[in-house]
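ok trying this again, last paste got cut off
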Amino acid sequence: MSTSTPPGAPPTASTSQPHNPLHGKTLQSIVEELSRHYGWEELAVRIPVRCFTHDPSVNSSLKFLRKTPWARDKVEGLYLFMLRDIRRNRGGTSAPFKAD
């Protein structure tokens, strides 16, 4: 018996965009991860918008980013860069190296 999706059925979350790191991520979780990774000061340097430079918070950032597509694009781009940088610093693997 096959476990594949029948023809004409809508794709599931796991099959529709299996290699897209943004798929299933909320804007809130992206902003929270960026602020944890870089800190608000570094985030303001990398993306100099008022919601990051003046009294930054997740809520104020979300309000601005939801209304400003170009800024949201920059945040998503920085998030993808952060993920690549983290992967690169780990040596390109997602699992820890096991010695024999």
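PB: full thing came through this time. The CA atoms of residues 45 and 74 lie 13 Å apart.
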